[in-house]
Amino acid sequence: MLEQRIRHTGLRSRIVSAEEAQQWVKDGMTIAVSGFTKSGDAKAVLQALAKRVEQTGDKLRINLYSGASLGETDTILCEQQIIARRLPYQSEPRLRKSINLGEVQYTDQHLSHTAELLRSGCLGDIDLAIIEATAITETGGIIPTSSVGNSPIFVERAKRVIVEINLNTPIEFEGLHDIYLPKDRPNRLPIPITKVSDRIGTPDIPCNPDKIIGIVLSRHTDTPSNIVPADRDTQRMAEYILDFFEHEVRHGRLPHNLAPLQSGVGSVSNAVLSGLCNAPFENLEIYTEVMQDAVFELFQSGKVAFASASSFTLSKSMTEHVNASLSKYREKIILRPQEISNHPEVVRRLGVIAINTALEVDIYGNVNSTHVSGTHMMNGIGGSGDFARNAALTIFVTKSIAKDGRISSIVPFVTHVDHSEHDVDIVVTEQGIADLRGLAPRERATVMIEKLAHPFYKDELLYYFNRALTYGGHTPHILEEALSWHKRFADTGDMRQF
Amino acid sequence: MLEQRIRHTGLRSRIVSAEEAQQWVKDGMTIAVSGFTKSGDAKAVLQALAKRVEQTGDKLRINLYSGASLGETDTILCEQQIIARRLPYQSEPRLRKSINLGEVQYTDQHLSHTAELLRSGCLGDIDLAIIEATAITETGGIIPTSSVGNSPIFVERAKRVIVEINLNTPIEFEGLHDIYLPKDRPNRLPIPITKVSDRIGTPDIPCNPDKIIGIVLSRHTDTPSNIVPADRDTQRMAEYILDFFEHEVRHGRLPHNLAPLQSGVGSVSNAVLSGLCNAPFENLEIYTEVMQDAVFELFQSGKVAFASASSFTLSKSMTEHVNASLSKYREKIILRPQEISNHPEVVRRLGVIAINTALEVDIYGNVNSTHVSGTHMMNGIGGSGDFARNAALTIFVTKSIAKDGRISSIVPFVTHVDHSEHDVDIVVTEQGIADLRGLAPRERATVMIEKLAHPFYKDELLYYFNRALTYGGHTPHILEEALSWHKRFADTGDMRQF
Ligand SMILES: CC(C)(COP(=O)(O)OP(=O)(O)OC[C@H]1O[C@@H](n2cnc3c(N)ncnc32)[C@H](O)[C@@H]1OP(=O)(O)O)[C@@H](O)C(=O)NCCC(=O)NCCS
Ligand SMILES: CC(C)(COP(=O)(O)OP(=O)(O)OC[C@H]1O[C@@H](n2cnc3c(N)ncnc32)[C@H](O)[C@@H]1OP(=O)(O)O)[C@@H](O)C(=O)NCCC(=O)NCCS
């Protein structure tokens, strides 16, 4: 058993307990961990660290870098006030709270950028990388588990590495991953992906065995994703998008198998992909960062030819199905480093269709994906910008209202811009779909309000826009009212004027 | 003479006057023209059209697509109200006015995106392309003049083509250009540029001769660029940037020849490049969209090894120098389609250093490059987003104040976002330089205010930030005050509170 999991004979002697390993983490260190949308995150050592801090009352603060969000480890570390600085993404309520209190310095980054910023030297040194693995190869190579994330660049850059061999992960994970790191400049070459299914790297993360200071055996399971089932609204949004795809195919603007699809986490994205199970498209391809349950439903219905991502984010039951069928899926799936799954070069070359969720959109098509009321961080930009900016077709979805109608997600002026008007093609709410391609701002506003706004807010949006027109300008606004809806919500708990 | 300019014998019979050619332009057509930052724009036919409209009172409105800004042709057409829709960039006061009045529908686009949007079919058909040329080859290929811009995609997509052979352009332009169009998907391949100097295409724009319905001989000259000479402030900004480069080289974060430089139009960019003439860097490379005078000063001082762009924007005297020395410069210069000069794939691969100008920047690093007071279009985003988003190092410059201090260019909240906080590394004013890399928003605000704000506004910015902190959040703001500085300027003509 262990021979299979640790094939490099010299490394078998480095097995330590999580409790021993956590002692290598010192105050002020930068720790880089595997993990992407709660999958494949290194759990054992950091949770043991949190326990130590809780028990001893030690004061210890670290910079924590990851692929994307970790599971409960983010929460546990945050409760012990261990995280001083965090990047590039998170989605845990407890951590979010600390970020918004200014207790944790959070650098919200495009997920394809972190590797580059590490290379450039401006994120400092990585003292220790902790990587969850299925196995270690004969040469010390690390086989990841359910995500690749930033692990390859972390292993390359870290001074020392701890590997957490997760004995609960099926050994069949080996061969699923495709590890490729662009060379340092000026020797960088084109990334040779021209098809979603192209394998361009190695199945393992190359690692000098001397760097591996300890191996921890663990049996922690990933925090399962709890996908909210589609409701009437998300269902309707999915239908608008599928109708739109059919329309584009009819007009020769999309081929019959569409284009490689990216879809962000969340229930709408999942509903759109589920909807494709019964839509008249075949041989679909997925080029995304996270595979949710729906991707495997599409495989089961024979609709998808190939899927590439950086991680799985699956429900408990789908995890069981996938883990039991890995050898079958290995021919049809690749997990890549997030630098590659999200790389502008590849996204643009393949002509991806990107579907991501907005918190709010303004009447001119500017999108806020991150900041509630412009100030409070929700999760982070994640990969939405990597895809939205470079996709051939960029779609944003959002329900037209939030909090039972007390908030309109279509507003005069967004309180934060993550995706500018230049990057947004299509916006969808449960009210309708707005095609903004080629339109000037005044034209966009008319379509946005007409198609997307909730009846609670439509008249008031029109009233704003029409008065703004009297002030003139390419993008008319009434500056003193632009943010008044958000202010009203802060004061009264409702954006509506009664 | 004409044999050299029109080498395809069959085409010589298609020579017509500009007055004849303008009759092919009909009401409602989409006309696509060569031209990028006032260089190499097709001038003769459209100016003849304007004259006809002026003389006859004909009502005629067209959609006008170009590479980037045209010279006086934009003004002349606008005066006759011929332009119904314009994209992707402009910079003429008369046209700007019509756009801000809502008379011209202007779609402000990333300059690398227009070709893709044409391929996708969402910008409609091109009825007629009008391309300024140095010559036509034996096979009908079109040799551009001082810019390439979008001409290759226009020629490929247009139903019909008019060529304006400009007899004033030196025949030595031939061989300077490198024309490459990515293939349609799914057959698209990596763009094989790995060095600034790589030639990957043909010297001419391939064109089916049957499409060329007319050839006009012209002698119009490009509208010369009038670069504002460096003043004390721009000089100081250039010095901060050059010191920063030296600092990065000392710390091993940049090599001795830096990295391929992109620099936007404008006096600061020009001053930075000029400053490099006396800086301790050698073998510099330029990968940009526009070459201003300073690039040639750098060539003259032996500092630059190679320069790639999509156009020249030169003063009258520098134009004379360059035109007389083209055969010498041809070994060291390439002019490319703007899709390639600005392509995210190449910009990221080469690790470009991007320097562009902001109108205003907020305390968290969000940049407005386009909208005065959030409503009135200045020029457009141009290529700034193509570069800023994908560069290895993204720098924005702006004077800390405008209009004699009545406007602060560092504000609590920008009125429009073209480049989000995720994409901005360094901001420079004449007051100092702020390095935002790796910082969280609250940290950024402190540095921005401290280093960049003008003394007129520093205390008030600090006062805003400190009170915003009491409201909390990842990115603290006071919503009801966020835009109040702009409102105050609108009401009183001054952002300062007296
Ligand atoms: C934008 C994002 C937060 C939406 O999440 P979601 O779960 O799909 O959407 P929901 O509609 O359930 O909204 C989530 C919460 O935001 C609230 N919300 C939605 N719109 C809001 C608005 N305009 N103002 C304030 N709150 C709003 C909802 O009420 C809900 O609150 P709750 O958690 O208290 O119930 C999420 O998609 C995200 O983090 N995106 C950025 C990262 C990304 O796009 N990655 C893509 C690649 S994976
Ligand atoms: C932003 C941009 C307009 C700055 O232009 P510039 O000529 O370098 O800068 P200036 O400081 O001279 O400012 C231009 C005008 O804007 C005004 N201005 C500057 N900051 C301002 C502000 N914050 N609010 C209002 N007006 C402002 C100046 O007063 C000046 O006005 P004037 O023409 O009436 O004198 C210009 O760089 C641009 O259009 N950028 C977007 C496109 C781009 O970056 N392309 C890059 C690739 S080429």
Q: Could you explain how this protein is built, in words?
A:
Two copies of one chain form a homodimer. Chain A contains 19 helices and 27 strands. Chain A has 498 residues and is an alpha/beta fold. In chain A, helix 3 (44-56) links the parallel strand 2 and strand 3. Chain A is globular. The model of chain A has no long low-confidence stretch (mean pLDDT 96). One coenzyme A binds next to strand 17 of chain A.
Summarize the structure.
The first copy, chain A, has 498 residues and is α/β, with parallel strands linked by helices. The first copy, chain A, contains 19 helices and 27 strands.
What distance lies between the first and last C-alpha atoms of chain A, to the nearest angstrom? 69 Å
User: In total, how many beta strands of chain A?
Assistant: 27
SS-based class of chain A: alpha/beta
> Which percent bin holds the helix content of chain A?
25-40%
Low-confidence stretches of chain A: none
Annotation field: number of helices of chain A: 19
Q: What does the oligomeric state look like here? A: homodimer
Which ligands accompany this protein?
coenzyme A
* Main beta sheet strand tally, sense and closure of chain A: 8 strands, parallel
Tell me the radius of gyration of chain A: 23 Å
Q: Which two chains touch over the largest interface?
A: A-B, 85 and 85 residues
Q: What would the principal axes of the Cα set say about the shape of chain A?
A: globular
- Order of the strands making up the biggest sheet of chain A: 1-10-9-6-2-3-4-5
Estimate the strand proportion of chain A.
15-25%
Question: Mean pLDDT of chain A, nearest integer?
Answer: 96
